[in-house]
Amino acid sequence: MSRLLIIGCGGVAQVAISKCCQNSEVFNEIMIASRTVSKCEALKAKLEKSTDTLITTAKVDADNVKELVELIRSYKPDAVLNVALPYQDLTIMDACLECGVHYIDTANYEPEDTTDPAWKEIYDKRCKEKGFSAYFDYSWQWAYEDKFKNAGICGLLGTGFDPGVTSVFVAYAKKHYFDRIDTIDILDCNGGDHGYPFATNFNPEINLREVSAPGSYMEDGKWVEIPAMSIKREYDFEGVGMKDMYLLHHEEIEALGRNFPEVKRIRFFMTFGQSYLTHMKCLENVGMLSTEAIDFEGTKIVPIQFLKALLPDPASLGPRTKGKTNIGCIFTGVKDGKEKKLYIYNVCDHEECYKEVGSQAISYTTGVPAMIGAMMVVTGKWCKPGVFTTDEFDPDPYMEALNKWGLPWKVDEDPVLVD
Ligand code: NDP
Questions:
Q1: Does 206 contact ligand 1 (Cβ within 6 A)?
Q2: Domain ranges (residues) in the chain
């Protein structure tokens, strides 16, 4: 029995909340708090008829630590699940620290304003020292390690699918299949079709920032950075078929590189259709992906935020999207002196997700692990003082929960490798 405060009520949050309501034995009380409280109330009205979970709602600006602290003190949750945006990670962590409450999220911190000189100075130094230039990295949240330890609270970072489940797959492969892992290729394939010429499957601003950035991977403990979309492979995915995929920078590479230093190479690939890439290139070329404010007839406009307002809301793609996702990790390594390879993956059907919770599979594959991560923390299965990624705990209860809560996984012991 626990009480969870959930911050955010967008595409991912709506799935996480629906799943908490299916899991009333663990989450007997939840509060949905977000910037637009009408969305929280509408979701409460939709869910409360069919759940034993007691749902309350509140309005909160999660950029404001004082407001968050007041809300946490009045609701007294066992943990806070942050499914707002990565911009709010640090303010919500600060509030959890002040109130002595566990913290869970699905994506690592990045700043909303990338021109902020204080942030930029640290960012420029990190780019030089580490060798990758994505706006996000773990250093900001890992810096809370001692503070969380001293406060006796747990911070579980990045419990979506990737990062999140993919890192649990790594811990599971290491525990059950390998004495030594040599390479990891994380593959994220979305074979879904929503029928729009161009739309993103989760928050457009966060998504377009991620995919338009230079790619990078880790080899022998060092980052190798490449121009965006410059490494392309083809792969035949079960449930989807042949797809083009491109090497991207992705946050779990950083945590896995730190926590599994034996692994010689860690890469991340995501599938994109030609139409998506052509639209993205065009938007980038005309400056629409810029995160820097411009002056338009006396009004400050951030081009990527304006673009977000024009694009379909990812939460609205559910009823239109057909097809499947296939996301997982290919491993090579050694077991009992013999070379071994393995693919652990999940296949998820957009239309089935919509039938179950009214969302497409990208929100579903993120929202289910968000609920599972929160469950691991509040039930004490994964709860220790400090700040952790999902590869740092016993993977077995989480893997079991994936099977139970809608994301069953498979193991292929003879996968085709990516060259
Ligand atoms: P959405 O844009 O659909 O939803 C974001 C929600 O956060 C909205 O309800 C929004 O409110 C709310 N919000 C934004 N700013 C604030 C604020 N200052 N105070 C309170 N609430 C706020 O995003 P998604 O659901 O697509 O994504 C949610 C998170 O999931 C993101 O961090 C994303 O990076 C992560 N993610 C992780 C994945 C993984 O596999 N690990 C995959 C996909 C996403 P409002 O309605 O007012 O705008």
A1: yes
A2: 165-356
